[in-house]
Records
---
Amino acid sequence: MQNPINPFKKALHDKRLQIGLWLGLANAYTTEICAGAGFDWVLVDGEHSPNDVPSILAQLQAIAGYPNTHAVARVPVGHGHAGVTIIKRYLDLGVQSILVPMVDTAEQARAVVEATRYPPQGIRGMGGARASRWGRIPKYGQEANDQICVLVQVETQAALNNIEAIAAVEGVDGIFIGPADLSASLGYIGQPDHPVVRAAIEDAMRRILKAGKAPGFLTPDETLSRHYIDLGGVFMAVGLDVNLLARHTTALASRFKNPTAKA
């Protein structure tokens, strides 16, 4: 048995557009529905969703049935002892592409990368579990490092100031711009589409590309998604399962309860 190649990581290095969907319902059944929709990648959210390690595992197993869709997982924290531990647990589940929130400095980014690598390149604890197919991939320990994709989130003014240094960290494959927290950090809480915030996002994307790394973004606004794709966005999440469910159920109820209202 061979260690799986990470096609998502290669696509990011080649700057090939990858269209994704954010998953926050924390349910393997709905995750499987979304995994079969045709997205290049889906992100299982462990930060702002009621997920734990067993529910992440169940969703990874659901996504595995759709080999053209790559599973990315966001950890709740990536720093300190807690971050090292949770990253290790996600990787042992078989996650090959990991998104880490609130990375403000090159030092933090370097610590994240080290947490995803086996020695001597890093400090990931030896184990492997499901990732090594319980030891059935004989060279997993020697080959795993090369297939791990590290995505870090830039979502504060401090992180914006340090983009070039973060991008220069070996092992960082992509930089995701978090619009909600970034808007709050810039003083425009709840206004990710404010002109000041948009200008900061556009400038960040240009700087990430210039540094040779792949920029990523999330927005359910189709016009805005296409705008950021045109600016060079590489891993773009164009919707969220919770948002789709909330929006379409509300619209459906409204059409029947308020038939004269505009749909």
Note: The two ends are 53 Å apart (CA to CA).
---
Amino acid sequence: MGLRENITNPFSKWMDGNAPEADVVISSRVRLARNLASFPFPHQLSKEKANEIIHALQLAINNKKTRAAVGPMELARLAELTPVERQILVEKHLISPDLLKTREEETRALVVSGDEIVSIMVNEEDHLRLQCLLPGLQLEEAARICALLDDALEQTLDYAFSEKLGYLTACPTNVGTGMRVSVMVHLPGLVINGGIKELLAFIPKVGLTVRGLYGEGTEAAGNLFQISNQVTLGRSEEEIVSGLGTVTEQVIARERQARQQLYRYRRDALEDRVWRAYGTLRYARLLTGDETMKLLSDVRLGVNLGFLKGPTPRLLNELIVLTRPAYITKMAGKDVPPAYRDSLRAKLVREKLKDLPE
């Protein structure tokens, strides 16, 4: 599938709900920050040098060894995409909001595989941000795929590396392995019973951080949170992956316990909440983006607890992207007022749910 088809298609492989621990963990991501030797960091790059990096990466991904390691990938400059298409890439978690914070779109680019498991941001904070995104709790597998891509590219590209410090990055907090690992988790049980406050206080004490739906500087929506490592220097890649995996297992246990307690002691209230959410999604004529995320969270909770049949985890994950503003704007073919967008969002959700059981 080409990049244009990827943008049109709301589904990405990370949305597949048939994955380990998928009732709590929506996706696992591993990201490696890499820079090319003899080039200034992106904030000091000239357009000429930035284009040289894009050209060098194009040659590297076309290399036979790279294609053999991770399959074919496509490169596109942001200037080749419309503002709406760029925002869709953010909503699909293929690029960060920071990649869009410059007017020099021609100096920034994206590389993506057909299944969207592997992607590379070019000239964001670092020259390259290699990413692997998988459904459920699959941190070790994501790290393995990212390492394959990293090793293949390094056969062609000359990375900035220090024997003492490790990989050199624009931000000191990424120096060393340059690795950031994260999981997107759905925590409605802990939010409803108030346990989320204790969790948010615990996470930083073990060297991790909690962010919103689209990473740093964004807010949580639909009870979805990203948990990631803070330290990259002085720890091996294996230790970083293992550390987040261990904490994630604890989070999963806490969330499942919270859900079971809610269902045991507040069953009527919980079922009423879930069925009201499902009914609203099936029949509402106007839905705001925030309201939709909250309703999808409640429906997902009912599906995970087993008393609501019909909506699949894959469909619910897909609706996260389908109901975001950029995708609705693309479907409309033009910018539309918020009220009309709310109408289109509600219609889209009704269409997706109409053939499911009452």
Note: The mean pLDDT is 91.
